[in-house]
Please model this.
Amino acid sequence: MTKVIDGKAFAANVRAQVAAHVARLREEQGIQPGLAVVLVGEDPASQVYVRNKHASTIEVGMASFEHRLSADTREADLLALIAALNADPKVHGILVQLPLPKHLNSDLVINAIDPAKDVDGFHISNVGLLGTGQKSMVPCTPLGCLMMLRDHHGSLAGLNAVVVGRSNIVGKPMAQLLLGDSCTVTIAHSRTKDLAEVCKRADILVAAVGRPEMITGDMVKPGATVIDVGINRIERDGKAKLVGDVHYESAAKVAGAITPVPGGVGPMTIACLLANTLTACCRANSLPEPEGLTA
Ligand SMILES: Nc1nc(=O)c2c([nH]1)NC[C@@H]1CN(c3ccc(C(=O)N[C@@H](CCC(=O)O)C(=O)O)cc3)C=[N+]21
Model:
């Protein structure tokens, strides 16, 4: 039988663990972790995510600081805000919602964040630390995937992992984390020859391509674990629908375990953002890090 990995329930458990740590930090240390989210412009999807992040942050007992800037914000003003957040002791985590409007250089903006407060793990320092196996802030989506994989498999050592997609925010850091857990890792992408055959060798298949339902059941090894990172809004039979990068129906017939969309990786991303904010707060105060909530 195929196991459906319940990311929603898993995320609720992670959030409960974070909330317990936050309560203990308040009682024993008088410290409250704080997360600042910066949203530039009015992209409707981004607004939904930012609202969800705000609600989850409050729910676990953290302080939430929201900064909504107009779409025509000047780069210098955004950089000044980041400098202020870097210097603010109440702020332990900073997230600048991506994508940014085109006139802003997102590399420049992300690299202006204090790496210790970079809860997205996108700063070049954190990318380098992760790549060399040093302590870093780890990108939320890959961290959430890793937690679910460790829970399902126990040890990942020696397993063949194929990551489809080579983005800086998911594909590349996901590959680093799997390598860190001793998988044999292949990164496939749009130019990969014989993609179906490559995917079919995977004990762990992570789909992060951004193409709706591209990974079909015939590309999945029987019994494999399939992690679907895709979140695509499509229209079907005149109705709006959310689908992943995996064709769920056909893949679920072959897989040993699979994450659904919605209710899989998405909720884990936000839970890991809170976990990273807690970790950043503990490090900032030279306190022991929460166990099981880091890579
Ligand atoms: N700096 C930055 N960091 C991010 O982490 C970041 C970002 N920018 N920009 C946008 C993307 C997108 N993202 C999601 C988080 C949760 C769900 C989520 O919880 N999805 C629900 C469904 C929600 C729905 O119905 O739309 C699910 O999959 O079950 C989705 C998408 C974080 N992002």
Q: What stands out?
A: Residues 48-49, 95-98, 120, 140, 231, 242, 261-263, 266-267, 269-270 surround 5,10-Methenyltetrahydrofolate (CB under 6 Å). The domain at 140-266 is CATH 3.40.50.720 (Rossmann fold).
